[in-house]
Amino acid sequence: MPDFEHGIERIFSEVISGIIATALLTALAPAFQNSLFVLLFILLNIIISIALIDAMPYWGNGYILGWLVGVIILSNSGLVGIFDFILYIIPPLFIIYKRIKN
Q1: For the whole model, what pTM was predicted?
Q2: How far, in Å, CA of 83 to CA of 58, rounded?
Q3: I want to staple 79 with a disulfide (CB 3.0 to 4.6 A). Which of 51, 71, 74, 94 is the partner?
Q4: Could you tell me which of 56, 51, 82 has the C-alpha nearest to residue 67?
Q5: Is the CB of residue 60 less than 8 Å from the CB of residue 3?
Q6: Do residues 71 and 11 touch, judged by C-beta distance below 8 A?
Q7: Could you tell me which of 85, 82, 65, 59 has the C-alpha nearest to residue 2?
Q8: What is the pLDDT of residues 64-76, one digit of tens each?
């Protein structure tokens, strides 16, 4: 079962792929002004975020802790904004809280 290191690895790969996707969209946006392409890209990102949150309850505690440490590291470095920080921190903390409570 994936553990702490895998959680850190996952958040770093998520953020790096997000940076690459944003760079591509920024580079291609002028060619697609007033286009459905930008809206579809935003909707795709929302769907991917929902799928990520939906999968979190199946992660192990070590994996979640690695994920949380990675989010904090990336947030302190400025690579994760406040909205993403909240999105990536609240669901795993809630899952850990539910597991401890039960």
Answers
A1: 0.83
A2: 23
A3: 74
A4: 56
A5: yes
A6: yes
A7: 59
A8: 999 999 999 999 9
Task: Give the pLDDT score at 56.
Answer: 93
Enter the tokens of residue 68.
């949380």
Beta-carbon count within 10 A of 17 CB: 11
Stated as kind and residue range, the H or E segment containing 100 is helix 82-101
DSSP tag of 77: T
Looking at residue 57, the DSSP 8-state letter turns out to be: G
Side chain identity at 12, as an amino acid letter? Answer: F
Measured CA to CA, the distance from residue 18 to residue 76 in angstroms comes to 17
Nearest-5° angle of CA 73, CA 21, CA 72?
10
Domain ranges of the chain: 4-101
Q: Are 60 and 5 in contact (CB under 8 A)?
A: no
